[in-house]
Amino acid sequence: MRCFLRFLKAKRYLLLVTLLLGMSLPSHSTELAVGYGELQYIPPAVGSYQLPVLGQAAEGQVLDEQGQAQSLQSILQGKYSLLSFVYSHCSDVNGCPLAAHVFYKIKGLMQEQPELAQKLQLISLSFDPERDTPDIMRLYGANFKYAGQQGTWRFLTTHSLAELSPILQAYQQEVQREVSLNGQSTDYAHMLRVFLIDPELRIRQIYSVGFLHPDLILNDLKTLWIPVAQQVPVQPAVSESSNMVKPKQNLDLLALAQQPPLGLPPLMQETLKGLTTDKILLGQKLFFDRRLSLNNTFSCAMCHIPEQGFTNNAMATAVGVEGRTVRRNAPSLFNVAYSKRLFHDGRDTQLAEQIWSPLLAVNEMANPSVGTVLNKLRSLADYQGRFEAIYASKPTMSNLGDALAAYQQTLLSANSAFDRWYFAKQEQALSMEAQQGFRLFTGKAHCVTCHQIAEKSALFTDDQLHNTGIGYRESLGLRSAKQRVEIAKGVFVEVDRSIIDQVSEKLPQDLGLYEITQNPADRWKYKTPSLRNIALTAPYMHNGSMSSLAEVVAFYNQGGIANPNLSTVIKPLQLSAEEQGYLVAFLQSLTGSNIADLVADAATAPIGDQTQQDPNWANQLSQPLQGEAR
Amino acid sequence: MSVSFKSQVLTILLASSTLFVASTLPNYTAADETCMSPYMAKITGQEDFVYVWTLGVEGLGDGQDKLVTVDVNPKSSTYGKVVHTLSVGGRNEAHHSGFTDDRKFLWAGGLDTNKIFIFDVSTDPAKPSLTKVITDFTAVSGGVVGPHTTYALPGRMMITGLSNNKDHGGRTALVEYNNDGSYIGTYWLPTEQALAGAVKTGQYADGYGYDLRALPRRNAMFTSSFTGWSNYMMDFGKMLNDPEAMKRFGNTVVAWDLHARQPKKVFDVPGAPLEIRCAWQPKHDWCVTTTALTSKIWLIREDAEKGWQAVEVADVGDPSKIPLPVDISITADDSGLWVNTFMDGKTRYFDLSDPMKPKQTYETQIGKQVNMVSQSWDGKRLYYTSSLLANWDKKGDDNEQFFKAYEWDGKELVQKFVIDFTAEKLGRAHQMRFGARSLYAKDQVIDPTHFVQLKAP
Asked: Residue A395 belongs to what domain range?
């Protein structure tokens, strides 16, 4: 009933306005805007949201009701304002009369709410100066005097279309003159916009027909009036990956390199000698800088993601710039400082040199040349002086590699449960299942043959390359006629291979070490990876073809995949299911104790994305770019 | 052609006048200007141009993304022809675009490079020009990658992201700009760890994003969820063969408080819900979406007691064959829905008279692959393009790239013309937006003999 009465009240008011302005009542086909009735939903609570600054309220010369020229900004300054562009003879019920109705309601509320009357002013500015002279606007305004005397409602116009035009442009108030077939001006078509402007001339809200309503306006005003200290804090923007385990926090990476965690050997003196904190931090900045790729989308960290074991858990084999296919799984960078061979095929031996492969590979970071990379770095403001301070030189091929290597050489992680049990002799450190697994690892399963453990440390690799049959299967194996595809969690469909082939590029060939040596005996040989932190670095194998450690153990238990070059150390293991479970438990015990610290430290590094200040043609577009007619 | 700004805006309200107009027209369903923001002026008569946001192809033509302008006015001497192209530099994974609420500028995003290209389409609608490129979208937004939907709000643009700069996964946000291209704010999609006040109604709160639509009369905004950069940029076949990649798809639709920009409810909608279209009729408090992988139509509707709910209402094709529903288009009277399925290249018409029970009544094959569909406001003309994503499109001879124009009489689609985007050395044809000279004329001639006359939205 209350709602119905309100509706009647609104209709009565509308009739008043209609009579005053000579417009017609809306036809049955026209829905009245929400501003005429009761709000059909509960608006967000006062102070529960924010009204960000949308822009500055522009200046302009206007005429007041007495025909006096005034600065629009001087009128707006110092008070909250609701500014509406109208014209006095507007007949569209959901146009200017709607704005007038809402202002009228608010003016009415000003009679009961002194704070509202004191802080807020209403401004109706005509966009038809030819007809809406100051006298007309004064008369127009007189129609609304029954709302009460408290509060301010200004009725402004301009001297001419020439003076009005820049104001309309600044407020993006589109107006079209409607003309009849004989050229007579009949009306205006315009976008209804009502601006909420704060005393500092900042636009805080732009209302349109869909939500121009007194209740919302009042809520917005009261929200703006709440002192900042009393505002309900807005939920913080959370951009961290969901598996982020600690907040950002710097770690002394140099100290970590100088004193590796339990279970790792000391770094080579040659490596340590070159490390400094400045170099490490520069390398870290570079590592996370996406501008180091041709199109500014790829940093090292896009494939070696700290929160995902410095690899990428979300795909079997990597993708690079423009989504181009990379043949192999991104290797983890934990403890890469100890690697004597780099890449799955072992083609590089020095970290500082290795970096140029991904930087220049067309399917990775796709830079067209060494010089392109170096010149870009030299031009970026945030690198000015950084290389010079460390290397007494501008960025070069050598010092760029050196800095990137410096950071990667500090990504040391050990002191795992295994390390504490095996090297520190803490008996309780390792579960009984993992201990069983260790015995299998070093015994019946022969894993230690390749994943080696030394007397005082363990890198779990022999730094050699072996053929397990995975590559052979990939190159020569037959594929099933159907592929099992998970289309939602736990929902699988068997898809015809022919359908998948329609959208599949031709698979790139991968022959492993052979590609480096050209020795047929080296076909499909790949490097033995370290097993440290293996629980964090799925999916597994050089092509990421196995999702779990259980799959990997089962693969070796069956003796790999038979092929002419299968490594002689790979044989069926005859492990029971229970024994395989023990091996998995052991592998899971190899996660270092400082992973969260390394991840939290990585999060302190700025991610280098393109800014407006970076040299780029698109940042320097002073004139509109024209196309080509056809 | 005729348009109207008049009292622009409003949605719902306008919707009724739309209905009135449409109801006077025989045999017409209405249209894909309905895909546009309700805050925007509509082209209610014959559109003059279709702007096709086109992906460059390495080795084809100039290899760059470009805005291609097609003349679609049958009265024009260049009807059915490409009349203008504007190359923007690079291959940015051109995808979606949207006008500002005054319809003077077209914002077109690049899902890969995160650039947003702002075209002036008002100075000369036949020859758009590039006036600004937002190059720091990711930097200023706090790491959002993949600007997708560019949705007009009064004086502002709300942009959905698809990914982030930390891991190229699906965690992402909405990013708001003003019409001048200045950044306003970032609103992260709710996750298990950061629900931001939202209620998780099912199993998932994945924080993924894709499309966005608003129902201003209900103060409601909805977002859907696709996948992160790693997947949408990856070769489609490679991804289908990668179990880890296939685990990274969105399973949610989020209902937001439009005014406060705050998430309120997270619904389970498994299998990558993509495009969202909201009903136009004043009493139709619902929106519709389709899931790409599970091939379902879902209704997001408001229940008097339970509030907003998500309900699965129909299959699209045979889900076991992954037909891949992609673009959809609701009619202006809410009575029908066009659904394109990429893999079989078909367009399907569903009767939505009872939105709880959509019923397919028509289908035909548009090409070997099809993605986008756009209709004129009167529903008589439909336009189709071929490309889904650069690395998801079919390979070899199946990789047809086209713009096709059709007429619809309520029973059959009749092809009017085809532009081969490969033969024209243009690229992969993706999203379409309509242009009209009269939108920007200083004076608008009111011709009472012309049926068009839509006041509002």
From this structure: 253-413
Residues A173, A113, single domain; the answer is: yes
A514 within a domain of the structure (yes/no): no
Copy the structure tokens of residue B221: 């905004």
B370 Rama sector, left if φ>0, alpha if ψ -120 to 50, beta otherwise:
beta
In angstroms, the first-to-last Cα distance of chain A is 64
Distance to chain B for A91, nearest Cα, Å? 10
Do A384 and A442 fall into the same domain? Answer: no
pLDDT digits 0-9 by tens, B101-137: 989 999 999 999 999 999 999 999 999 999 999 999 9
- Note the pLDDT tens digit of each residue in A457-503: 999 999 999 999 999 999 987 788 999 999 999 999 999 999 999 99
Q: Nearest C-alpha of chain A: how many angstroms from B420?
A: 15
Domain for residue A286, yes or no? yes
B154 contacts on A by Cβ (under 8 Å)? 193, 206-208
Residue A11 lies in a domain: yes
- Residue A95 has a pLDDT of 86
**A-chain residues near B447 (CB < 8 A):** 181
**Mean pLDDT, to the nearest integer, of B304-313?**
94
Q: Is A130 on the interface with B (CB under 8 A)?
A: no
Identity of the residue in B16, B192, B251 whose CB atom sits nearest the CB atom of A31: B16
Give the ipTM of the model, two decimals please: 0.92
- Do A421 and A385 share a structural domain? no
pLDDT in tens, B258-302: 999 999 999 999 999 999 999 988 889 999 999 999 999 999 999
Contact check, Cβ <8 Å, B173/A239: yes
pLDDT in tens, A304-322: 999 999 999 999 999 999 9
Burial of B78 (0-12, 13-18, 19+ CB in 10 A): middle
Distance between A439 CA and the closest CA of chain B, angstroms: 31
Taking phi over 0 as left and psi of -120 to 50 as alpha, with beta for the rest, A317 belongs to: beta
Which is it for strands A80-86 and A120-126: parallel, antiparallel or unpaired? Answer: parallel
Band of pLDDT at residue A364, cut at 50, 70 and 90: very high
Say whether pLDDT at A232 is over 80. no
Higher pLDDT, B34 or B87: B87
Q: Could you give the count of Cα atoms lying within 13 Å of A196 in the half-sphere of its Cβ?
A: 25
Q: Where residue A131 sits, what CATH number does that domain have? A: 3.40.30.10
Residues of chain A contacting residue B324, judged by C-beta atoms under 8 Å apart: none
Nearest to B453 by CA among B7, B17, B23: B17
pLDDT of A30: 63
Single-letter code of the amino acid located at A620? Q
Are A144 and A103 contacting, i.e. CB atoms less than 8 angstroms apart?
Answer: yes
User: CATH number for the domain including A363?
Assistant: 1.10.760.10
Residue B88: Cβ within 10 Å count: 24
Give the whole-angstrom CA distance, residue A457 versus residue B213: 58
Domain boundary among A413, A435, A462: A413
Q: Domain B3-440 has what CATH class? A: mainly beta
Same domain? A344 vs A274: yes
Instruction: Note whether A283 and A360 are same-domain residues.
Output: yes
- Same domain for A309 and A291: yes
Report how far residue A514's alpha carbon sits from residue A522's, in angstroms, rounded to the nearest whole number: 5
Task: Kindly state the tokens that stand for A403.
Answer: 């800095």
Binding-face residues of A in 222-251 toward B, CB within 8 A: 235-242
pTM of the model: 0.92
Peptide bond connecting B190 to the previous residue in cis, omega within 30 degrees of 0: no
3-state secondary structure of B280: coil
> How near does any CA of chain A get to the CA of B361, in Å?
26
Instruction: Please tell me whether residues A70 and A83 are part of one structural domain.
Output: yes
Give the number of domains in chain A. 3
> Is A58 a member of any domain?
yes
Is the confidence at residue B246, as pLDDT, over 80? yes
User: CB–CB of A191 and B5 under 8 A?
Assistant: yes
